[in-house]
User: What shape does this take?
Amino acid sequence: MQIICLQENLKQALNITERIIGRNLTLPILNNLLLTTENNRLKISSTNLEIGIISWINGKIEKPGEITIPAKLLSNFIGNLPNKKIEMRVKGSQLHLKCENFKAVLNGLEAKEFPIIPKIKDKPLIRIKGGVLKANLSQVVEMTSLSDSRPEISGVLMNFEKNTIKLAATDSFRLAEKIISHNQKESINQAMIIPQKTIQELIRILGEKEAANDNQGQEVEIILGNNQVLFNLGDVQIISRLIEGQYPDYQQIIPKNFTTHATLIRTELINNIRVASLFSGKVNNVQFFIRSKPALIEIFAKDIDVGENKSQIEAKIEGKEIEIVFNCRYILDGLNNIMSDKVILGLNNNSSPVIIKPVGDASYTYLVMPIKA
Amino acid sequence: MQIICLQENLKQALNITERIIGRNLTLPILNNLLLTTENNRLKISSTNLEIGIISWINGKIEKPGEITIPAKLLSNFIGNLPNKKIEMRVKGSQLHLKCENFKAVLNGLEAKEFPIIPKIKDKPLIRIKGGVLKANLSQVVEMTSLSDSRPEISGVLMNFEKNTIKLAATDSFRLAEKIISHNQKESINQAMIIPQKTIQELIRILGEKEAANDNQGQEVEIILGNNQVLFNLGDVQIISRLIEGQYPDYQQIIPKNFTTHATLIRTELINNIRVASLFSGKVNNVQFFIRSKPALIEIFAKDIDVGENKSQIEAKIEGKEIEIVFNCRYILDGLNNIMSDKVILGLNNNSSPVIIKPVGDASYTYLVMPIKA
Assistant: This one.
């Protein structure tokens, strides 16, 4: 292999691919990035055996070839070089590099040992703008379960239907649902559960491309393979295994009618809950009193060792008064994923979930189970 | 105790004092801040038994008194309140607080259990501008020894002489010296070794006051007590124990004459060493070749597992050529504490230290011992 490329392009491709690589002592090749030439471009691949990331960059390919190089070393090295032309040449299992006044030799491993990243050649389910996908996935991704006991909720559900994609994530204590509209003509009807880590990487990479001004309205193809999914960003592909199993029928636990509605300013609610959380002990229990005369929400927390705190927020209250206890961290997670100035809370009684929605946006629903008194 | 003060003032005083407080399980009172009223002001004190910090703020003292409150709780609580008036009232061992729509009760411990922070009433050795003190101490503070085996070099030397204060720090592998000029008329001749942690806190607090636009040219009094030092910033005092022992006579190891001088651009040298450091192995060894034909510094590092790297930097070279090996991290620490565009290196042979100085500033000297071949 012998190629010339620009430092800036190579640096970006390394940043995108190297982040899924940890420190693998049993299988050292997993610490490495695979560099190959393909159709007059340099292709950089990484895998942790669950997720594979491939990035292509332009360059002058003088001689095709391939090698694997430790990811952190290559990325740190290239990241510190000046933004000039880099010459790379493979000799045996070493990569020789030149850039301005720098000359280096990096020890690698043979490319043939590198695990195969599956190829998915099916037709895309859908094409969607990268920015839209990123913004919507970001609103649900943290709500997945971190426990291994129910793998089917350890990922994000993507439910493709006519005109919509429904995203959902839950850990059984709280749930977020986000509905993306689409106007693709062909009918699709598919559901998949994608590991949280994959969604986090997809969000990160879309963010890096946004920051590099590199995805002005760029579309992402979502392609379903054999228990695998491919997010095709054009010059970057993310391939991930899917989670097997049946996602719970969460729709049935979302109440449709409420006896109490409270509308209030989101940042005030966040701030008052944050103060209360200092007094909420290890269980994070915070009491909410929704009062109609005067119309306000009172927030109370008490810990026998620490002390107690009470605060009030003006609110528009419709329906009956209610007292209810929540884990305040779950409420905060939802509020922090809403962008609107005001939020509306829908409640029924102190053993039914609360629904939190942005005012003026029907596409996002956040649900939290109460703590039973 | 019953007082009213502004959230912003209280928040700043808490930030300044609470940072030295860790998590002390054997002596819980050390997790607390002492709040007392003194001369119509609120006085907040913290101590870790080595360093004490006291901060005074204005307020309306309706009833004098005192209490201690867990530092992190109080600081998080006050930090999240709106910037309005706060009413505080001590009842038994509890502090009752009110601020707008927030009401809280914080459990405390009795003030009489709080350790005494020594009072130092001597005459100041010197008065010096806070900004000057901070900038100069910052250039030496990281060079102290982290080992317990030689406590006398685990702190920063402050050597007060006629017209100058000499600051020095070393871990025996490298050394930094900074000379501050002063024009105080009374003659002073005192030396003290101040723990690194104290200097770090002093720098942090001067920085916070700078950020709050609160020390426009404000002077710091340095007062020597009985094995204690007091830095008096006016509304903040830092009291610390001193390190006992004799600081090494470091002047004798700083060479005064050199066979080789190299002048080059500081950021280029930093960048090339940083690249070389990736190939410098666990011992951080990097080779420097100072060449006169052509005039340049060549930097080389090789690690049998990783690979090797060579780079060149243009330099003005005076005197004879030399090859020498350094721990690159020590060289970087010095270069990162120099502000000038260019630096000058003074060398003699491959077993003598290198001296690094900013071009155009005689007040800073950085010395690194070479690694013997």
About this structure: The mean pLDDT of chain B is 95. Helices of chain B lie at 7-18, 71-79, 130-138, 196-211, 266-277, 328-336.
